[in-house]
Write a structure and sequence with these properties.
The chain is 40% helix and 18% strand. With 94 residues, the chain is of the alpha+beta class.
Amino acid sequence: MLLITFLIYYILRTETIAAEKDIFGPDKHCKEKNGFEYKLEVSDNGKGIPKEIDFENSDFLGFQLVNLLVEQIDGEIEPKRDKGTQFVIGFSVE
């Protein structure tokens, strides 16, 4: 988990520095299409989360933390249960 946190921080920090120097910046097409500058997708190829589990109102601490953290960055999260489990998180950096 620490590795993923570091990679996300590094990507955002590098892109922020590059945007300040006009090298590149957030994806404008993503913002036009989704309303967010960034999209983070995390997935696996396991069995997936059972359909009975309400991700947004779950008693599981992990799901509660994920929802809380996404809310703190004014983002949106979309769980997908097709082939394994996939979470798509959209957010912007100000």
